[in-house]
Amino acid sequence: MKTTSFVNKRKLTPDLIRGFMLLFIALAHANQFIFANGEITITDQVTVCLRQVVIDGRAFPLFAILFGYGLHQVLNGQERKGNSWKDTKKVFRRRGAWMLVIGFFHATLFLADIIGVYGFIALLFAGLFLRLSNRNIIIIAVFFLILVGVFAPYMPRGFDVLNMEVTNSATIADPIEASMTRMFDWMFYTPVLSYQVIPGVLIGILVARFQVIDNPLSHKKLLI
Fold this sequence. Notes:
Blueprint: H1 12-30, H2 42-80, H3 85-107, H4 115-124, H5 126-129, H6 134-151, E1 159-160, E2 165-166, H7 175-192, H8 194-209, H9 220-223
Helix pairs in contact: 1-2, 2-8, 3-4, 6-8
């Protein structure tokens, strides 16, 4: 008697997207290790503009979209296991709490932690977002996109991209003082900056629902 075993094949497209996302994230932060010498040239400004559009403008939204996609995949995995919605929410809260812990310690070393922001969203909003209808997701995403367009330009965090200069805790020479300053900055910025990634997270949930990444050939027009 033959027995058939089902092996879940790993999907290539999500892995490729994650790889490009990590590459873009690395390139987006590379400028923080090369600072201006006090003289800003037109070449510098053009380079910064291109980097913001081609790299930063893709890396951070893609990170948020993949996070939303991942939340939905976790939900699907819990449903396949037969876990209740109550237990599933506990999974999101536990993972979100751990991300906050990791983000807190990461913030003591690096001035632009983003892990805590996603942990904050997973802890407080994952259960809400995943239960929204497609229509409500679109409405809320558009609302937060408008907020980002209005307020984000006035909320620099640790690095002035226009002048290519480090700011705040990045310029503190004493490592202990810098770490303490970043801890307090992190406590403020983590909840405040969460609104900037919410649109991408919501879009990621829709992407997962419609299996845009899972079946890219069926959504070529949308992806192109």
